[in-house]
Amino acid sequence: MAPIRAAEIVAVGTELLTPFRADTNSLWLTARLNEIGIEVRRKTVAGDHVGDLAAIVSEARERSDLLVTTGGLGPTADDVTRDAVARALGRELVLDEAVLAAIRERFERRGMRMPEVNRRQALVPAGAVALPNAVGTAPGLWIESGDRACVLLPGPPRELQPMYDAHVASRLRDRAGERHVRRRVIALTGQPESKVDEIAQPIYAGFAGEPVPIATTVLASPGRIELHLWASGTDAGALDRALESGVSRLLPALGRAVYSTDGRSLEEVVADRLLSRGLWLAVAESCTGGRVLGGLTDVPGSSAWLRGGVVAYDNAVKIDVLGVAPDLLRAHGAVSEPVAAAMARGVRERLRADVAIAVTGIAGPTGGTPDKPVGTVVIAVDGIAASARTFRFAGDRSMVRQFSVAASLDLVRRVLD
Fold it and tell me: What is the pTM of this model?
């Protein structure tokens, strides 16, 4: 049987086509598939329309060795993945009595009668292998079609992930052969995407023509840039050596903007710096409303290096809690380097920290002036060294806040370095 090299993922659910629900399953699945040497070539989000979904499945089967669908396996009328896949493969839906018995038993264990609508979950395309669901009623399905495979997984991550690990990973590993996919990520901040690419492109342009070709792409979010390098082949050691060489050639050109090459977030990098030096951090925030502190407390074990913080929106809080002098506010305004420096000093002293950071700014959409337009943000650090910088960030309120969080953490990182 031919090996599986290329995969597509189809996330099913009309809710995924709205602003209210994001597809996270495909990210998790891509990482798992890459681990065993299967490259994900395409991802699609499809609504709950059986005709549209059947067409997507038919097209995907022509392109890829493996198709993985997520969602649409529930008992209701809008759960159409089984129907669409059966139509695309030209197979009948048949009742799997073993699956039906397992669903009925699950309800009985809870002292409930199985609703008749749940019988739909026991309908499977002819020839499909049902994959047990340890935490839900929707079974997954494994379907062979010539040299190609189709896997239907439930949508909830708490059901999808254990099902994949228990019943899909070994099947795919047997079919993937000895091929490997390796990836390295260079994470940067403080530079726009275009500037990073201007610096890096002359270097990575030659990677594709080397004995072990390396593909490269630049991904951007407000305040944070990721340069992804990946390679595939049968010699895992050669892939790792090629990627390490690629990273080592890029780092000198990218300089201090790089904060991680090992998958750590900017928050984790700051945490490691503080922990290794036995230092305590405190935070004072205005325009970010606690987002700097929130990101830092996402790091496990943050109580070993993080004292706490103060969200000081109103000037009275800056005065009464952080000790900012009223004359300083009158002379310079809340969004100024002298006030940011005073906020940092005040929170460091009051929380008995070794180093502190403060951020104050105008996130918008209102509040800007000709001298201090929307997007003006001032960040200060106090402790090991004193530093204050004024930034002009572009974008809406959310983007300005994201840029501010990244710049705050980066300023701490640079001071600690």
Answer: 0.77
